[in-house]
Amino acid sequence: MQATTLDLNLDDIIDSRDLQDALDEAEDRLSDHEDGSFPLSDEELAETTRLVETLRRVADEVGSEWVHGVTLIAEDYFVEYAKDLLDDIGDIPRNLPSYIVIDWKQTADNLRVDYAEVEIEGFTYLFQG
């Protein structure tokens, strides 16, 4: 049984392949509606159409790597993301003395120059592009 609504799961970090799955599902729903196999209410039709338009726009803005998996990071999570990234790749020494303070916001701002922005449902996400 098909659900009656489609919701995007807008986490702090999103893989574009998950959004592509949501787009495919929404497009299938529109196709099923058009051939009469799964009628939608006017509200459901409008919401599904809006979702398809939104995700197609985002896919176009992200570009050809969309289908291979692009990491989208919520703008308000980017400082934490930068901290985790630098820790994961070993740019932060393991035994950093506690008296040394890193300005993580400035560090994230410095990294941000390598990222583009895309808006999804009123939220800004960053991706390497």
Question: How does this model look, in words?
Answer:
A hairpin with a 2-residue loop joins strand 3 and strand 4 (123-128). The model is unreliable at 1-5 (pLDDT under 50). This protein has a four-stranded antiparallel sheet with strand order 1-2-4-3. Helices cover 47% and strands 15% of the residues. The chain starts with 12 loop residues before the first strand and ends with a strand. By secondary structure, it is an alpha+beta fold.
What kind of sheet is the major sheet? 4 strands, antiparallel
Oligomer: single chain
Mean pLDDT: 91
Work out the helicity level: 40-55%
Secondary structural class: alpha+beta
DSSP strand tally: 4
Low-confidence stretches: 1-5
Highlighted features:
disordered N terminus; 4-stranded antiparallel beta sheet; single chain; 4 strands; 47% helix; 129 residues; 4 helices
Question: Any chance you could write out the topology, listing elements then pairs?
Answer:
Layout: E1 13-15, H1 16-34, H2 42-62, E2 71-74, H3 78-88, H4 104-112, E3 115-120, E4 123-128
Antiparallel strand pairs: 1-2, 2-4, 3-4
Concise overview:
With 129 residues, the chain is of the alpha+beta class.
